[in-house]
Design goal:
Largest sheet: 5 strands, mixed
Helix content: 25-40%
Shape: globular
Radius of gyration: 14 Å
Oligomer: single chain
Structural class: alpha+beta
Length: about 110
């Protein structure tokens, strides 16, 4: 797998091991939202085919140089290895989370 994805594989496995992947489970709707913490912000990952990061947009969608970004790989690996943080919440918090995942970088501390 590392030969197919190169450095993306290693960045993905590192993110999974370091606990950067979160799964939010909402009730009673049973919606699930996955996020991966990147260098500047948390990114929304939808299933195993979409990420909200710039690399995904530029190199996967536009340039078609790669099939995924390291955030997607991190989500897939974390799910398979059960290395993600699971957060249960009620549906009233769903919109708050989604608004928080808008593309606004974290401020440097």
């Amino acid at each position: 797998m590392s030969s197919k994805y190169g450095e993306r594989f290693w960045k993905g496995i590192r993110a999974a091991i370091e606990g950067c992947v979160k799964k939010y489970a909402f009730s009673p709707s049973r919606r699930e939202v996955w996020t991966v913490q990147g260098k500047k912000m948390d990114y929304l990952v939808i299933d195993d085919f979409y990420c909200g990061c710039d690399d995904f947009y530029l190199n996967v969608v536009i340039r078609r140089r790669f099939s995924c970004c390291y955030h997607l790989l991190a989500k897939v690996m974390a799910e398979a290895l059960e290395l993600y943080e699971s957060i249960a919440s009620n549906d009233s918090k769903y919109l708050l989370l989604m608004r928080g995942l808008r593309r606004v970088p974290k401020k440097d501390s």
